[in-house]
Specification:
β2 and β3 form a beta hairpin. α2 packs parallel to α9, α6 packs antiparallel against α12 and α10 runs parallel beside α15. Helices cover about 75% and strands about 5% of the residues. It is mainly alpha-helical and about 500 residues long. The chain is globular and about 60 Å long. The chain has a 3-stranded antiparallel sheet, covered by helices on one side. A two-stranded parallel sheet has the order 4-7.
Length: about 500
């Protein structure tokens, strides 16, 4: 599969020297295709998930409960990236971890494809576990393909790799969403399993082109550490089994016995991780100041993702119930809205890159803080825009598809302002001791944001469906206030950042 995309090598000495992938090591083709198919399976299933949860032919849950389940699932994927990275570093090495992750994801999708509500949540759990294992390690292997941090092809390689993410995310709703909505929900989930199977097959066949160090466990556990880790894991697993057995046999078990603890973990763990780093006495004064500034970025990013990820839940469920999902009289599946963001990313990312370079040459490029603040204001603006179709629906009419596309457009522009900047700031502001862990910390901002959404929407704790004018207006206002606050205190934050710009 990869060989058709390769050409003669111009630089020997890299994995797969006889061929290259658009001038990059041939192993990039393997990782590109693996990631593309994994994202195809992940985003295809994610596009179907909220619709299946509320559909009469699906689980037929309330919109609020569906949003809570969706949000907990997404938060769990990003939360598990931390232990996923730990497994790659300490237990299996990146290559084996990704292979195991692909198999777990495929098994999860196959479990979702079973026509039984009893196995559905187990399938979600397997996909979340596999995604966490894969997410943290496949990008590491891309970096392994290059000859150190100064290899001039390195940034371009990651750009090509991330194109695979967006290609998979774009195609998935069009294929899996169409089959799932129009033919059979479980057949759609089965197609997601097929996508992951293709990705796993591609990875296993092409893994000979990967760098040798991708098979190495960088910091393997000692015998004592293994014994201690297994003992602690067994104790916690035993406590969970006993607790849920008591709840189940007593007849009190409901889904919220899982949802609420996971929601609370998604809020508590990010706070604990940041607090542990901030209190570390090994950090010097400059690193302490950088972490103080980073916490501002982290909290603001959590607000951003809280709203942004509702594009797959709140907006999708609203479109199903109240959207006029037609183009020139032709009705399209609701899941197709989830293809809007990746196609806009592919179209706009090069424009933004050119724009920043052009401004930089004139000495007018906005600072990191200004870009970040602008992203927050735009995500708030997207929900202020959401108020228009909500008002239309409250008047008894269907909201035009153009309204929803406009919301996704504004959110995508906000993402392009905030997400790359956040990734860059995370690597630059990371204390030396935590350099390899800080990317996982950045993912925890997504976990925190989605956990807030899950808490707000869960009916068991007083939550409601979030596509209500009052809730949307409050969330929009919160994001804009956060953006303005970051901008107003930019000098203070810049001072804490030190030499990071």
């Amino acid at each position: 599969m990869a060989s058709s995309l390769t050409k003669g090598s111009a630089r020997p000495g890299t994995p797969g020297t006889e061929r290259t992938f658009f001038g990059h090591p041939r192993g990039l083709a393997t990782l590109f295709m693996t990631e593309m198919w994994e994202r195809f399976s992940y985003y295809g299933m994610r596009a179907l998930l909220p619709l299946y949860l509320v559909a009469p032919g699906g689980l037929h849950l309330s919109a609020a409960t569906a949003t809570a389940i969706y949000s907990v699932y997404v938060s769990l994927v990003y939360l598990l990236a931390l232990p996923g990275g730990w497994f790659g570093d300490r237990v299996w090495g990146p290559r084996k971890t990704v292979a195991v992750a692909g198999a777990v994801i495929m098994l999860g999708h196959l479990t979702l494809a079973l026509p039984s509500s009893g196995t559905f949540y187990a399938g979600l759990g397997l996909v979340a576990i596999g995604s966490g294992l894969l997410k943290a390690n496949i990008s590491t292997m891309v970096g392994h393909l290059y000859e150190g941090k100064d290899d001039p092809r390195r940034d371009g390689g990651f750009t090509v790799f991330y194109m695979g993410i967006n290609l998979g995310a774009f195609a998935a709703p069009l294929v899996i969403g169409t089959i799932g909505e129009n033919v059979n929900w479980h057949l759609g989930f089965a197609l997601a399993a097929l996508g992951m199977a293709l990705g796993l097959g591609q990875f296993l066949i092409g893994s000979r082109h990967l760098a040798e160090r991708s098979s190495v466990t960088p910091m393997p556990l000692s015998a004592e550490e293994k014994a201690s880790t297994l003992r602690k894991a067994a104790i916690w697993a035993g406590i969970a089994v006993v607790f849920y057995a008591i709840v189940g046999f007593s007849g009190h078990y409901t889904l919220n016995w899982i949802l609420i603890p996971l929601t609370l973990l998604g809020l508590i763990i990010p706070v604990m991780v940041l607090a542990r780093i901030k209190r570390d006495k090994d950090l010097d004064g400059t690193e302490q100041k950088s972490m103080s500034a980073y916490i501002w970025f982290f909290v603001a990013a959590a607000v951003f993702w809280m709203i942004y990820d509702q594009g797959g839940s709140t907006l999708s469920i609203f479109a199903k119930a109240s959207g006029d999902n037609t183009v020139f009289g032709w009705e399209f599946p609701v899941s197709w809205y989830q293809s809007v963001n990746p196609v806009l990313i592919m179209a706009l990312a090069p424009v933004f890159a050119w724009f920043w370079l052009a401004l930089n040459r004139r000495g007018k490029e906005p600072s990191t803080i200004v870009k970040f603040a602008s992203g927050l204001v735009l995500i708030g603006a997207s929900f202020f825009l959401f108020l228009a179709p909500l008002s239309i629906a409250e008047g008894g009419h269907k909201a035009a598809a153009a309204w929803l596309v406009a919301i996704y457009f504004v959110q995508t522009v906000g993402e392009l302002l905030l997400s790359p900047v956040g990734l860059s700031v995370t690597t630059k502001m990371a204390p030396a001791k935590y350099a390899s862990q800080m990317m996982g910390v950045w993912f925890l901002a997504v976990t925190a944001g989605d956990s807030v959404t899950a808490l707000l929407s869960n009916p068991a704790v007083g939550g409601v469906n979030l596509d209500k004018t009052g809730f949307v207006a409050v969330e929009a206002t919160l994001a804009v206030i956060a953006g303005v606050a970051v901008w107003m205190y930019r000098k203070k934050v810049k001072g804490l950042m030190g030499e990071v710009h």
